[in-house]
Design brief:
Elements: H1 2-13, H2 25-35, H3 40-53, H4 57-62, H5 65-72, H6 79-94, H7 103-106, H8 114-125, H9 134-143, H10 153-166, H11 172-185, H12 204-207, E1 224-235, E2 238-243, E3 254-255, E4 258-260, H13 265-274, E5 279-291, E6 295-306, E7 315-318, H14 320-325, H15 333-345
Parallel strand pairs: 1-6
Antiparallel strand pairs: 1-2, 1-4, 2-3, 2-7, 5-6
The chain binds iron/sulfur cluster.
Length: 346
């Protein structure tokens, strides 16, 4: 039987991971949200630190948002952290601290989509649910020799139905993990290792010699490039920082003020003046770039001085310790280091 072969392979090959074999719904939830878009190696450290700081759903619900974002710093896709906390508040205050035990109810919480709902329901509650991530899409498209583009809703539905029919009734959580492991270790994107595959005899793509041609994926979207000037404005041992709006890219995180196409000191002085900051100087301090999913920032940094800086909710000056405590995106790392250096030497 398909699932028997797959699970036997999984039992022999599963990696030791901090969340492997976990049954606590809260801990499974945290690991699954962190693992979206982020490698296992990176997640390990974050997972341990996050759970040490917020060991229960109530602890997460009641924490200041900036503390949650600080612990997420460097993981990227920060809306995941904000949604996690929004959902934690609902679970803590409206559900008596217990995560729902069905995929349908889990999906009603912020940030929990089909995949995460299936993962929690199957791994924590033993529900016969499919957790279809990108690995499963690829594996299922090959198993069924699906010729349609996997970006299309109708195709995803077909793959989901095929996957749901395969889920093991006794070990649904292990089944999902086994399928993901198969995608990660054997049914690789470019070169599937069909000779090592425990389920090759059920694979329609392999039978027809199509394993390298599938899945059919949507065309890649070209990254848009944005040039941004970054201003480090210093005043008496402090540097100016700005909080990004709650919604949108890097929402709620702190940054040094930066402006599209303001790539020289005079342009930045004008932009800063619009924020009410009178900056002088403008020494070039270096360039950095940062790639988001569909966007590339090419940044040029400049250091300014000012006689006074604002002290508001969203725009304020911080000293070295204040800077270290703020959640800042990785995109700002090079400039943060430059600012820390300058604040250290005075
Ligand atoms: S036989 Fe090859 S293509 Fe098919 S599921 Fe296994 S590794 Fe993937």
């Amino acid at each position: 039987m398909f699932s028997e072969e797959l699970l036997a392979w999984h039992d022999a090959n599963a990696r030791e991971l901090p969340w492997r074999g976990e049954r606590d719904p809260y801990r499974i939830w945290i690991s699954e949200i962190m693992l979206q878009q982020t490698t296992t190696q990176t997640v390990k450290g974050y997972y341990a630190r996050f759970l040490a700081a917020f060991p229960t759903v109530r602890a997460l619900a009641d924490a200041p948002e900036q503390e949650v974002l600080k612990l997420w710093e460097g993981l990227g896709y920060y809306s995941r952290a904000r949604n996690l906390q929004k959902a934690a508040k609902i679970v803590a205050h409206e559900m008596d601290g217990r995560l729902p035990d069905t995929a349908a109810a889990l999906k009603k919480l912020p940030g929990i989509g089909d995949y995460t709902a299936g993962a929690i329901a199957s791994m924590a509650y033993g529900r016969r649910e499919l957790a279809m991530d990108g690995n499963l899409v690829r594996v299922l498209a090959r198993l069924t020799a699906e010729g349609g583009c996997v970006g299309e809703t109708a195709v995803k539905k077909r793959l989901r139905a095929a996957g749901e029919a395969l889920v093991d009734a006794d070990r649904p959580g292990d089944f999902n993990q086994a399928m993901m492991g198969l995608g990660r270790l054997v049914c690789l994107p470019g070169e599937p290792k069909c000779g090592e595959c425990p389920v090759s005899r059920w694979c329609a793509a392999r039978a027809r010699g199509l394993e390298r041609d599938l899945p059919v994926t949507p065309p890649r979207i070209e990254k848009k490039t944005e040039r941004r000037g970054v201003a480090l404005v210093f005043c008496g041992g402090r540097v100016l920082v700005r909080r990004r709006p709650e919604d949108g890219l890097l929402g709620g995180l702190w940054e040094f003020p930066n402006f599209p196409d303001a790539m020289d000191a005079p342009s930045l002085v004008e932009c800063l003046a619009e924020l009410g900051v009178n900056a002088a100087g403008g020494r070039q301090i270096g360039a950095a770039s940062h790639a988001f999913t569909h966007l590339l920032w090419k940044m040029e940094g400049f250091a300014f001085s000012a006689a006074a800086l604002p002290d508001g909710e969203k725009l304020r000056a911080v000293d070295a310790a204040g800077l270290a405590a703020l959640p800042m995106p990785t995109a700002m790392r090079a400039f943060r280091e430059a600012a820390e250096e300058r604040l250290r030497v005075g």
